[in-house]
Amino acid sequence: MGFVTATAARQAGRNFFELAAQFRSFATIGFRRYATYRQATVASLATNTTFGFLRSYVLLAVVAASGAGSIAGYSRAQLMSFVWLGQGLIGVVLLWGWNDLSERIRSGDVVMDLLRPQHPVFAYVSADLGRAGYAFATRFLPPVVIGSIVFGMALPTRATTYALGLCSVLLAVLVCFLCRYLVNSCAYWLLDNRGPTMAWMVFSGVLGGLYFPLRMLPGWAMWALWLGTPFPSILQAPLDVISEHGGVPGPAAMLAVQAAWAVVLLAACLLVQRRAERRLVVQGG
Amino acid sequence: MNVIEARGLRKEFTVRAKAGRFRRTSSVVSAVDGVDLAVERGELLGYLGPNGAGKSTTLKMMTGVLHPTAGDLTVCGYAPVPQRRRLAARIGVVFGQRSGLQWDLPLRDSFTLLRHVHRVPAGEHAAALRRCTDLLDLGSFMDTPVRQLSLGQRMRGELTAALLHSPEVLFLDEPTIGLDVLSKQAVRQFLAELGARGDTTVVLTTHDLADIERLCRRIVVIDHGRVVHDGTLTQLHERYGSQRRVTADFAVPVVPGDVSGLPGVTLESAEAARLVFALDSTAEVGDLIARLVTWGTLRDLSIAEPEIEDVISRLYLSPATSIMS
Ligand SMILES: Nc1ncnc2c1ncn2[C@@H]1O[C@H](COP(=O)(O)OP(=O)(O)O)[C@@H](O)[C@H]1O
Ligand SMILES: [Mg+2]
Fold first, then answer.
1. ipTM summary value
2. Hey, is the C-beta of B166 within 8 angstroms of any chain A C-beta?
3. C-beta of residue B223 within 8 angstroms of C-beta of residue B315
4. CATH code, B1-90+167-177+194-239
5. Chain B window 25-84: which residues touch A at a Cβ cutoff of 8 Å?
6. What is the residue extent of each domain of chain B?
7. Do residues B249 and B80 touch, judged by C-beta distance below 8 A?
8. How far apart are CA B122 and CA B199, in angstroms?
9. For a tag on chain A, would you pick the N or C end, based on fewer CB atoms within 10 A?
10. Residue A116 domain-assigned?
11. Is-contact B87 B103, C-beta < 8 A?
C-alpha cells in the first residue's frame, strides 16, 4: 500500500463532509502556526493594551469636555466598550502585518499553492479562520478583561447580542481577510508592494472606525463609508453590534452590509486570482 | 497509453530590459524549443542538461503552472494548465528551490495537512509515511520545525510530501542540488527503490550526471531547449565518446608502464606520484587497476564521471547530432 501502488485519482473534496475536513485541516495549520509564536503574541498584546489606555483617556477627555456625558449616542461605558473591544479585535481580524501571500509571490513559492487540488483562496481563507480562532483566545479576551476591570465597559444586556456579535466578528474576519488577500495580490503586478500595504494601513484604521467612531461623522459621510467601502464592516460593525449602540444602522442592517461586502470581495478575490494565475502561467514565476 | 506525451512543446519568454533612460528593448528567449517526448507508465526518466537548458521550464509546463507557447501536451490524460487542479491530485512535485512544506511548523504537521488535502485514507497515509520515514530516515527530525531543518533534511521532507498521496507521476526538479553527500545518497537510493517498484513514473531533472547514472535507464538530454539525446546512458557515452577520468596517486613517484594492452585507456598526464588516465566507454576500470598495482603501492584512487558540460560539448562536435532532432 502507500506509494507502492499509485492509486487512481482522488477527486478534490466533493461532498460537504470532505470539504469540512479539508477546511478543518487548513484551519488547524493556521491556528498552530500562530500558536508557535508566543512571544509575538505577547508583544502584540502589550501594544494593543497600551494603545487601549491611550485611546480611553483621549475619549474620556472628549466626553468630559462635551459636558453631555455622551458623544454620538455612545454612553461613557459604551465608549469604553468601543475602545477595548476594538483593541481586542485588531488582532482577531488581523488588521495589520499580514504579508504571507505577497512574500510567497515575491519568492515564487506561490507556485506550490497552485499544485494543490484545492482553490488557493479556499486554502488561505480556511487557514485565516484558524488563525482568528487562536487570536480570539489570546488577543481578544485579555484586553477586554483589562478594559472592563480598569474602566468599566458596557456588557451586552440582551442574549441575542452575543450571537449577533459572534456572527459580526466572523464576517469581519472574512471581510478583512479578503481585503488583505487583494492587497497582497498586488504583488503579482508590482515589484514593490509597499504602496498598497501603506494605503491599506492608513485607510483601514481611519475609515474603519478604529481611531474614532464613524457615527461622529455627518450622516452622509458615514453612509458613504458604510456602503462605498468595506472598512466599516471590519471594526465598526462588530463594535457597534456588541456594544449595543441604539442608533441607525441597527445590528441587522450592519450584518447585512458586512455579508454583502464579504460576497463582493470574495468575487473580487476569485477574479484577481484568476487573472494572477493567467499572468503567472504565461510569464513564468 | 503514455503517461506523458509532448509534441512540439515550446515556451518563449519575452524579456524586457532597460536600454538607456526611456527606451526599453524586449527580446524573446526560447526556453523550450520543440520538445517531443513520450513517457510510459513506470519509467524513471532522467532529464539532463546544463543550467539554463530549459529543464525547469519543461517541468513547469508538465505540472500545469506554465502555459506552453505552442505544442501539444498531456499528462495523465489531462491538459496540464486548464485541468491543473485535477492533475494536482495525480502528480507529486518537488521543485528544488521551492518549498511545499509548512515553514513554521514541525515536519509532521505538513504531512497531516497533505493527508486531508489529498483525501488519503488514514491507514494508507500511515503506511506510506512509515515507508518514507524508514527509507529517508526522517525519524530524528519529524518534530522539528521545517525552518530549522538542513537543506538535505528538508529535501527528504519534500520528497515525502510529494509522495504521500501515491501519485502516478513524480516530477523532481533538481532534488539533489546543494545537498551534502549523505543526503544525496539517501535521495538517490530512495529513488532507486521507487523506480524498482516500477509503478510510479518519475521524471527527474538534474545537471549532475552522477544522479542518474545508476538510476535512470532512459536519459533525455536537453540543451538550449532542444532534445539532443534520448536513450540510455551507455548509448550516450558510446555515441559521443565521453570519458571517465581515473586519477591514481602512488606512495612514491613511478614511471608509468605500458597501457596499450588495455582498450580504451590512454594516459593523460604523469607528474611524479600522480597518473591520470582517460577511459572511454569500452574501457574496463578493473583491468586498469589490476595493472596499476603492479607498478607500485597505490595510496589513493579516484574515478571521475564525465561532466555534463563535456558530454554536451561533445554532442556538438559529433556528426551524430544531426540525426537527433
Ligand atoms: N520567467 C522567465 N522569464 C524569462 N526567462 C526565463 C524565465 N524562466 C526561465 N527563463 C529562461 O529560460 C531558459 C531556461 O530556463 P530553465 O528552464 O530554468 O533552465 P534549467 O532549469 O534547465 O536550468 C533560461 O535561459 C532562463 O533564463
Ligand atoms: Mg532549473
1. 0.86
2. yes
3. yes
4. 3.40.50.300
5. 57, 60, 63-67, 76, 81, 84
6. 1-90+167-177+194-239, 99-165, 243-305
7. no
8. 21
9. N
10. yes
11. no
Q: Is the CB of residue A87 less than 8 Å from the CB of residue A44?
A: no
Q: Is residue A133 part of a domain?
A: yes
Say how many Å lie between the CA of residue B145 and the centre of ligand 1: 32
- Nearest-CA neighbor of B230 among B49, B86, B56? B49
CA–CA min distance B284, chain A (Å): 37
Report whether A273 contacts A185 (CB < 8 A): yes
Give whole-number Cα distances, B69 to A12, B82, B249, B272, in Å: 28, 14, 53, 57
What's the B195 CA to ligand 1 centre distance in angstroms? 28
* Mutation for testing the B interface, residue in A34, A36, A98, A115 having most B CBs under 10 Å: A115
Q: In the block, which residue shows the cell 456594544?
A: A243
Distance CA B84, CA B165 (A): 16
User: pLDDT for B169-197, tens place per residue?
Assistant: 999 999 988 888 888 888 888 999 888 88
Q: Secondary structure of chain A in the HEC alphabet?
A: CHHHCCCCCCCCCCCHHHHHHHHHHHHHHHHHHHHCCHHHHHHHHHHHHHHHHHHHHHHHHHHHHHCCCEECCEEHHHHHHHHHHHHHHHHHHCCCCCCHHHHHHHHCCHHHHHCCCCCHHHHHHHHHHHHHHHHHHHHHHHHHHHHHHHCCCCCCCCHHHHHHHHHHHHHHHHHHHHHHHHHHHHHHCCCCCHHHHHHHHHHHHHCCCCCCCHHHCCHHHHHHHHHHCCHHHCCHHHHHHHCCCCCCCCHHHHHHHHHHHHHHHHHHHHHHHHHHHHHHHHHCC
Please report whether residue A17 resides in a domain.
Answer: no
What digits encode the pLDDT tens for the residues A230-273? 999 999 999 999 999 888 889 999 999 999 999 999 999 999 99
Q: How many domains does chain A have?
A: 1
- Residue ranges in chain B whose pLDDT is less than 50: 319-325
Whether residue A209 contacts residue A168, with contact meaning beta carbons closer than 8 Å, is answered with: no
Domain presence at residue A15: no
Give the burial string for B89-123 (b: 16+ CB within 10 Å, else e): bbbbbbbbebbbbbebbbbbbbbbbbbbbbbbeee
Residue labelled with grid coordinates 543526503: B183
CA-based end-to-end distance of chain B: 23
Per-residue pLDDT tens over the stretch A174-231? 999 999 999 999 999 998 999 999 999 999 988 988 888 999 899 999 999 999 999 9
B145 bridge partner residues = B106
Distance B242 CA to ligand 1 centre (A): 27
A234: domain range?
Answer: 2-10+24-282
Residue with cell 527580446: B27
A10 touches chain B (CB under 8 A): yes
